[in-house]
Amino acid sequence: MFDQAEHLRLLTKQEQKLPLQAPKLLMISSGKGGVGKSNLSLNFALALQQIGHRVLLIDADIGFANIDVLMGIRSTHHFLQMAQSDLSIFDVMNTGPLGLKFIAGGSGFSEISYLTADQIQVLINQMSMLENQFDYIVIDTGAGIQEYTLKMASIADDLLIVTTPEPTAITDAYALIKVLVGRIQAPAIRLVVNRVASLVEGKEAADKVVLVAKKFLNTQIQVLGYIYDDPNVQRAVMKQQPLLLFQPNSTAAKCMQQLIRNYATGEPKEPIRRMSGNSFINKMMRLFSK
Ligand SMILES: Nc1ncnc2c1ncn2[C@@H]1O[C@H](COP(=O)(O)OP(=O)(O)OP(=O)(O)O)[C@@H](O)[C@H]1O
Ligand SMILES: [Mg+2]
Q1: Is 119 a domain residue?
Q2: What is the annotated signal peptide range for this record (predicted)?
């Protein structure tokens, strides 16, 4: 019998044989700030990379970009430099642990609404070059209901909403989901409850969101999993090392690994043709159009 890891390796091998045409866009967001999005994005991206996928992590947090800080890597480039200079998307990429590619946010995203039509075209052209280069693009966004987050959500293949068991975080997660459901056709929304003291507490928090979304929005939210409150997360942040590498056997790291397994299990087992190249470019055009 295969164990989970074996199963994941097999899935990965199957996928590697495929002529993947477009990266899968996985966006990680939250209603309330400070609930653990950036740590989850980084470790999620690393875990996908660890099982053989080609992953690009993009820090799209307006104003509070800090993915590079979490890795202890000083990035001299940021996303919008592509539009504002001759740099290509590959020039603004950095390489993190395990060869993970990432693009730092800087304060860049807040300037996106000031770009000229020509600069936007440059962005679209550059983003289109990511096709065939990556299997997953993991996007860490800022908290709350921001126009840019909603726009990104509308082109994402998967949306992960992070909350904690705190009532304020749950209410804000629901508020975000409500707006997303109103704006996006059939969004695949998955919920992660972070900083739980027990599984019961995590399930209770998740149930609240799932039930209210079902009742009032007629939307099914899939619960991807729970992450225990664990001081090792703070320690990893202080050390500027991703938790999965700093303390792989910690409770929170194991929870994150489990999340990845849950995510991978939900992925199609049979090879499928992902969207055609044109639709990836179309998505980029939608993302940057005013
Ligand atoms: N599972 C956890 N256990 C303990 N502490 C945690 C956990 N997850 C996150 N934290 C703490 O919460 C802090 C904020 O996490 P993080 O920066 O990932 O949140 P965020 O949602 O990205 O915040 P922002 O909305 O400001 O971007 C971390 O620095 C860490 O101290
Ligand atoms: Mg963050």
Answers
A1: yes
A2: none
Structural domain boundaries, residue 273: 22-288
Site to probe by mutation for ligand 1, drawn from 46, 233, 246 as the one with most ligand atoms within 8 Å of Cβ, is 233
- How many Cβ atoms are within 10 Å of 204's Cβ, its own excluded? 14
Number of C-beta neighbours around residue 17 at 10 A: 8
Probe target for ligand 1 pocket from 28, 110, 192, 237, with the most ligand atoms within 8 Å of CB = 237
CATH number at residue 258: 3.40.50.300
Q: Is 112 exposed, middle or buried (0-12, 13-18, 19+ CB in 10 A)?
A: buried
Measured distance CA(229)–CA(134) in Å, rounded? 32
Structure tokens at 173: 């997660």
pLDDT single digits (tens) 68-83: 999 999 888 888 888 7
Tokens describing residue 128: 């289109």
- Structural contact between residues 174 and 31, judged by C-beta atoms closer than 8 angstroms: yes
Residues pairing with 202 in the sheet: none
Buried residues in 132-147 as b, exposed as e (16+ CB within 10 A): eebbbbbbbbbbbebe
How many whole angstroms separate alpha carbon 121 and alpha carbon 163? 35
Return d(Cα 162, Cα 149) in angstroms, integer: 14
- Residue 8 forms part of a structural domain: no
Atom of ligand 1 nearest to the CA of 237: 29
